């Protein structure tokens, strides 16, 4: 019985060794906003500069959307600072920005970006997520962008299992707290990265099958061996 237990423990250990390597992080979508016209309303939808997805602005006044000087923080490769998305206005309290992107075959999305605000700009931004674009669930408490220089912000959604493999995932920002019409919030170099779902390597599957057969056979032989009688 002890030998059988040892054999089965060996199966578990070797099967673990034959699993696929840990998931690699893949770029899903990236917005550097450098194609925007400076100091201009560039519309309410923004396709990414790399990858696939969409940023949609909802509920904004025309004067609340513009573009200003950007940042090198979180830029990919040799991308210049260029432009950043500029959102402003006390009249736009409760306006929204929605990321939509495909998570098929992917897990554990992480959103990173550079942002900053003016002194009377939006002080509370509530993040929420959805898999249908209708019913949203808050992701923690609102965050407050830093004033002054751009800073890196990371939102890790790896704990939200519902987003894993979703045909379309949604991340929504709802803006609050602005007290001046010209006070701003700026966003630049937004990246969504996610891991690929792990798939066992064929060689590992074949090897693990052979190991299971070998060790189970050993266990059965040990079980069926006749008991030795003591010759005391």
What does this structure look like?
- The structure is a single chain.
- By secondary structure, the chain is of the alpha+beta class.
- 17% of the residues lie in helices and 35% in strands.
- The protein is built from 2 helices and 13 strands.
- Strands 1, 3, 5, 6, 8, 11 and 13 form a 7-stranded antiparallel β-sheet that branches. The protein has a 6-stranded antiparallel β-sheet with strand order 2-4-7-12-9-10, with no helix packed on it.
- A hairpin with a 6-residue loop joins strand 9 and strand 10 (137-138).
- Helix 1 runs antiparallel to helix 2 (202-224).
- It is globular and about 45 Å long.
Keywords:
seven-stranded antiparallel sheet; disordered N terminus; 17% helix; six-stranded antiparallel sheet; 232 residues; 2 helices; alpha+beta; globular
CA-based gyration radius? 27 Å
Strand element count:
13
Categorize the overall geometry. globular
Helix content: 10-25%
How many H/I helices?
2
Cα distance, first to last residue? Answer: 24 Å
Q: What's the pLDDT, averaged over the residues?
A: 84
Structural class: alpha+beta
Describe the secondary structure blueprint for this structure:
Layout: H1 2-17, E1 25-31, E2 45-46, E3 50-51, E4 54-58, E5 65-69, E6 83-88, E7 96-101, E8 106-117, E9 124-130, E10 137-138, E11 151-156, E12 169-176, E13 184-196, H2 202-224
Antiparallel strand pairs: 1-3, 1-13, 2-4, 4-7, 5-6, 6-13, 7-12, 8-11, 8-13, 9-10, 9-12
Helix pairs in contact: 1-2
Write a compact overview of the structure shown.
The protein is of the alpha+beta class and 232 residues long. Helix content is 17%, strand content 35%.
